[in-house]
């Protein structure tokens, strides 16, 4: 623990310094009392933070809806989460160009969302194959040949 039992604005605060898998320093501040609890909570929170960041930006623009009724926000979050998952499924197998520094030019979510928008906004009469392929991403993968099942 880097800082133990500090008081910030009258509230207890503990700070942990660790390293990411890539070796970069990571500092996490929390009111949790043990360093292990702080890091465990951070790992759990980080998963949901990635989703909320994508819903607020990356084409979903959740905050621009200005919705305030809890029921409406809940339903919208459910729909946007499904759209996010679909975007990940659509983008995960696409070719990603890397910039000179080695990072991707676009995120998996952005690539997938673009392909969903492109496929769903085709002119009537255009081939719907791309959209059908994207819809089939939701289907469970079945084996193509005979399969032996033992009990």
TrEMBL record:
<dbReference type="GO" id="GO:0006313">
    <property type="term" value="P:DNA transposition"/>
</dbReference>
<keyword id="KW-0812">Transmembrane</keyword>
<dbReference type="InterPro" id="IPR002559">
    <property type="entry name" value="Transposase_11"/>
</dbReference>
<feature type="domain" description="Transposase IS4-like">
    <location>
        <begin position="37"/>
        <end position="86"/>
    </location>
</feature>
<dbReference type="Pfam" id="PF01609">
    <property type="entry name" value="DDE_Tnp_1"/>
</dbReference>
<keyword id="KW-0472">Membrane</keyword>
<dbReference type="GO" id="GO:0003677">
    <property type="term" value="F:DNA binding"/>
</dbReference>
<feature type="transmembrane region" description="Helical">
    <location>
        <begin position="73"/>
        <end position="93"/>
    </location>
</feature>
<dbReference type="GO" id="GO:0004803">
    <property type="term" value="F:transposase activity"/>
</dbReference>
<dbReference type="InterPro" id="IPR012337">
    <property type="entry name" value="RNaseH-like_sf"/>
</dbReference>
<protein>
    <submittedName>
        <fullName>Mobile element protein</fullName>
    </submittedName>
</protein>
<keyword id="KW-1133">Transmembrane helix</keyword>
């Amino acid at each position: 623990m880097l800082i133990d039992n500090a008081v910030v604005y009258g509230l207890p605060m503990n700070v942990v310094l660790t390293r990411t898998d890539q070796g970069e320093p990571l500092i996490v501040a929390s009111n949790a009392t043990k360093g292990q609890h702080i890091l465990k909570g951070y790992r759990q929170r980080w998963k949901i933070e990635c989703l909320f960041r994508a819903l607020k930006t990356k084409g979903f623009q959740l905050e621009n809806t200005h919705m305030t009724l809890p029921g409406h926000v809940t339903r919208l979050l459910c729909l946007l989460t499904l759209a996010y998952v679909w975007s990940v499924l659509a983008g995960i197998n696409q070719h990603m160009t890397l910039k000179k520094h080695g990072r991707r030019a676009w995120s998996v979510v952005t690539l997938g969302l673009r392909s969903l928008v492109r496929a769903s906004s085709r002119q009537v009469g255009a081939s719907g194959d791309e959209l059908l392929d994207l819809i089939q991403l939701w289907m469970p993968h079945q084996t193509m040949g005979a399969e032996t099942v033992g009990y």
